[in-house]
Amino acid sequence: MKKTIPFILTLFFTILCFSQEAERVKGVVFNTSTDRVMDNVHVVNLNQVIGTVSNSNGEFQITARANDTLYFSFLGFKSIKIRVTNDMLKFEGTRIGMTELAYALEEVVIRPYKLTGYLEIDAKNIPINNAGRYSISGLPKGYEAGSANPGAISKVMGAIFNPVDFLHNIFGKKPREMRKLRKMKEDDEIRNLLASKFDRETLSELLQIDRVDIDEILRNCNYSKDFIRTANDLQILDAIHDCYEEYKVLNRVDNR
Q1: How far apart are the C-alpha atoms of 193 and 41, rounded to whole Å?
Q2: Residues 157-167: pLDDT tens digits?
Q3: Please, what are the averages of pLDDT over each run of 10 residues along the chain (256 residues)?
C-alpha cells in the first residue's frame, strides 16, 4: 500500500501536467476597420515560445495555459498582446481585432551608382562593406571588424582573457530570457516570422528586452554597424544565439 500511494500521486501529477500542456486557444483574427477575417497573422505564445499563423478563414489555434501572453503580428497592423484566460481555453471562437497603422511616407531619394560599363572604373564606384570577419581557432564563430568596428580584435582577445567581464552586464541581466533563444530557433513559425521583420519588435517581446539592449548585445559580440542596421530579425536571433552560446562556455553558465 505504501508503494501504491507514491505511484498514484506520480500518475496524478503526470496526467495533470499533460492536460495543462494539451490545452489550446482557438480563435479568429479580424480587421477592426472592415470586420473581415485576416489570414497569415502570426500568433506567438511568448511564454511557451511557440508560434502559428491564422488560416484563410482567420482561424488559429495554439497551445497555451491560463495567464500566458499571446502576441499577434501582421505587416501594416498594430501588434497586440492578449493575456490567456480560462474562458479562452474553455470556449472556442475568441475574436481578436487588429487595427491598421497609419504611415506617413517620407521622400525617398534614389542615387544611382552612375555605372559606365567598364569593369575597372565601375568596380571603384561600388560601395564596399569594410566589416571583415575574423575567427580564432577553437571558437565556433567569427567576429566582424573594419572601419565600422575597429576594436573588434582587441575585444575578442579581451573576451578570452577576461571572460567574467565579457557580456556579463548584458546577458547577466536577463538569463531566463536568454535561455529562450534555443526554443525560438527550433520553432519554424517563429523563424518564418522573424525572417520577414526588421523592426526588432517581436524579438524584443520574446526576449523581454529593449531594442537598445539588443543593439548593445550585438556591439559587445563584435558585430558591425552595417550588420546591426541591415540584418533581419532572424539573422539577429542567430547572431545573439551564437554569442550567448559562446558566453556560456566562457563563463560556464548553467544551461538548464
Answers
A1: 10
A2: 444 444 345 45
A3: 51 49 87 96 93 95 95 93 94 93 64 64 61 48 49 46 51 67 84 88 86 84 87 89 77 56
DSSP state of 105: P
d(CA 224, CA 153): 12
The beta strand positions in the chain, using DSSP E, are 24-31, 42-45, 50-53, 59-63, 69-73, 80-83, 94-98, 133-135, 142-144
Write the pLDDT tens digit of every residue in 67-94. 999 999 998 999 999 999 999 999 988 9
User: How far out from the chain centre does Cα 180 lie?
Assistant: 9
CB 46 within 8 A of CB 206: yes
Q: Of 51, 36, 35, 94, whose CA–CA distance to 186 is shortest?
A: 51
CA nearest neighbour of 82 among 43, 133, 120, 136: 43
Neighbour-count burial for 156-169, b at 16+ CB within 10 Å, e otherwise: beebeeebeebbbe
- At residue 212, φ and ψ (nearest 5 deg) are -60, -40
Q: Distances from the Cα of 147 to the Cαs of 21, 135, 141, 151, in angstroms?
A: 50, 17, 20, 9
**115, 145, 118: which is closest to 127 by C-alpha?**
115
C-alpha cell belonging to residue 252: 560556464
